[in-house]
């Protein structure tokens, strides 16, 4: 934004969250304050420098206070995220629906989720269990290609937000209140395969391996040894993940001296492959549509994401958490799920 010639031309993406907008508005105000080209006004600002700095500090403090209020359950301005595509404060409903349905739901949901800001987690769980699960069950009972295609399209629309939700789940070891820990630990065994994930593999690969290595030389998802504009390198990278991750990840844990993780990672990955084989023998069409297609699509998407995001790994110091950092600001990705800005190796 420092290269913007006219700060009035800055346009915010309508999908940005309210906290994003507050921060960016504050930055725009800073730019506007320093970008005046008129020499006479510039000289006047030089004389009034101390007042300008006081105003800037006051504006920064006000922005920080507003951001804290939005995330403080005890504050009157607190806004939990209820839906992924709209800020709660911007929701406009008929008074009766707002009073008798929406607000009671938010109130109850805040007591169910692990963090009160994350009502959207429960919203999406209810969505998946009221659409994906019964649709998949119906396909195994009475399959049609029209239903199968529509089901797959629906799952594609869910995969991004679900994966971000599970990113929160695996890092926090749950998204629901701890009194619901049994439900919290069991629901992924139902929903993960519907969204293209194999049982527990995301946890072992992402938390126990990827975040330990941080895209460094021992990271199985690192692209540091590949030429990014080489098609054969890309095919090798994706092909190895597709066909050998069931072996590569356990071997990684063995090399690191963590045999228990190796056994668990292999057990869950191979257990799901066995389950897929069994289901395919019973109902190949439903298994292909409900489980295999999402698995192929999600893993393709994850590898494409790695290929792009990991482009900033520092070649000279690949193990550095600072020289390999990626910081994304002013992007609407936070509307998908409240995972925050990715600072550091992804």
Automatic annotation (TrEMBL):
Keywords, ordered alphabetically: Membrane, Transmembrane, Transmembrane helix
Record field: transmembrane: 119-139, 145-165, 234-254, 287-307
Entry annotated with the keyword Endoplasmic reticulum: no
Region (Disordered): 38-59
GO biological process, one term: lipid metabolic process
Keyword rRNA-binding: no
Any Pfam family: FA_desaturase
Domain spans labelled Fatty acid desaturase: 144-333
PANTHER family: FATTY ACID DESATURASE DOMAIN-CONTAINING PROTEIN-RELATED (PTHR36459:SF1), ORF (PTHR36459)
Name this protein carries in UniProt: Acylamide-delta3(E)-desaturase
Native source organism of the sequence: Metarhizium anisopliae (strain ARSEF 549)
Lineage, highest ranks first: Eukaryota, Fungi, Dikarya, Ascomycota, Pezizomycotina
